[in-house]
Sequence to fold (567 residues):
Amino acid sequence: MTDEWDAVVVGSGPGALTAAACLSTAGRRVMVLERHDLAGGNSQVFRRRHQGAEYEFDVGVHYIGDCGPGGLFPTILGALGVGDRVGFRPLDPDGFDTVTFPDVELRVPAGWDAYRERVIEVLPGDADGIGRYFDLLHAVARESRDRMLPGASTPTFDQWAGRTVAELFAACGLGERATAMLDHWSGLYAGAPSQTAVSMQALMVDHYMRGAYYPEGGGQVIPARLVQVIEAHGGEVRTLAPVERIVVDGGRVRGVRLAGGEVVEAPLVVSGADHRRTVVDLVGREHWSAPTLRWVEQATMTVGLVCAYVVVDVELPGPNTNYHVFPDYDLEGMYRRLDGGDAGPASAAYVSLASRKDPGNRHLCPPGHTNFQVMTLAPRGYGFWGVESGPAQGGTYRREAVYRERKALITERLLVAAERVLGPFRDRIVHLETATPVSQERYTHSTGGTSYGYQHSPAQSGSNRPAHRTEIEGLWLVGANTVAGHGIAGTMVGGVRCAGEILDRPLLVEMYMGTRLAEPGSVPADPLDFDPVEVCRGSALRARRAAGRAARAGAGAGVAAPRPSAG
Fold:
């Protein structure tokens, strides 16, 4: 390894790791610094052991789209030399999402035409408006891709992309019932129809119309493959390395300073950290222009998420689908209450069954069990949780009475919603824990504990979001808050585009044209005991953990144990 780096990447979310992998394969020496003990950001997993059983839960990868031949994820991973190391299992193509209201249910199939027909079957009285909605939304999605071509004509995109979804629904003459059914996607970007740009919904729907998938081996597999690419090309991923400051001098970046005082110098820094914290905390207000500071101060984050992680000791029957469970049709009212810090009388919920999606993953749960997650949107702010400040500012929360009470309230609502679609399972629960936006902030330092970054309103979508290149020379941005958007797909695309701008190459176009940035043989073969979690510890922590295991094994055998390395 070396103390001389061409680039330092702050954080290890999918966007940060993708940018680092692209730069590494282009010959740049890259150091990735992650405050947690595991790389991956919202694509990581966590594991629990209870009475001899192991359970694994995804933090953010519940399903992704466009994973078929020539799709987004195979294209990016293939160009980086690891496309043959990530498999994708399809969800039910005739109903990868099941949308449930008190009086009606909709199974969402892959394919724009099939989806349109299915909605009209459920709501035949709204057929004309539904047809117009699909015509416009599909055109916006199609023309958004055409815009990559010089001189392309995109009239529908130009007219509608920057308007709200609520305006689109109104123009199509759709009432509350139809709009709620067509807007079940809002849980994937946490915005009401009146708060969300049409471009966001068009791209989200189009992404899944190409099929819904789940990565074999869980969400941790994707960052593990990116870590392997970085390490194979002379880079390093260092965990347990919190960055305290991005060093700026004379209007250009000089490197970073870690919490322990170590300085890593580099002429290029890519921050995958929360945008607001990057600007205010890591760089400092004194280095930014007044317009940048005003944008950060006025921008609105999305609301956070609450997620219950559940394992039951029975195989719950049913199709390989996600469930979106709504108590009523008033989505605008739901978001108004959440924005006001009120959970309301009932919770909408998203139910994701990991053990149906990836039955071959031995870490999920023992045979004969079901591993699933139940999620909902959370009220905005700390007030609902009874805390004054978040853990990123040193605030405590886990033992606070109000916090525990509110977490128990939302957990109960989530279990009620899940039993609507899965049937009774309370007496079969063997593991249950719940994470809140405060938990999210603890691990990722995202502002307000949001998983989705800045709200995708017209004023904060597309080119209105922070660009990858900043006004500070040598400082670049990736992640959910930037121009490419949130989610695994958005952040990975952003990572490719950011690296492409740095290298002055249209990398994403090159990838789709078949350019290989790395050959498969450049990444060492997996060991027999390959574990994506262990790969994402980074080389230094892996070495320390291996030395610790060897020491314990030697001590158990009654022989002298090797001393851990100082690395």
Notes: Residues 559-567 have pLDDT under 50 and may be disordered. The longest strand covers residues 305-312.
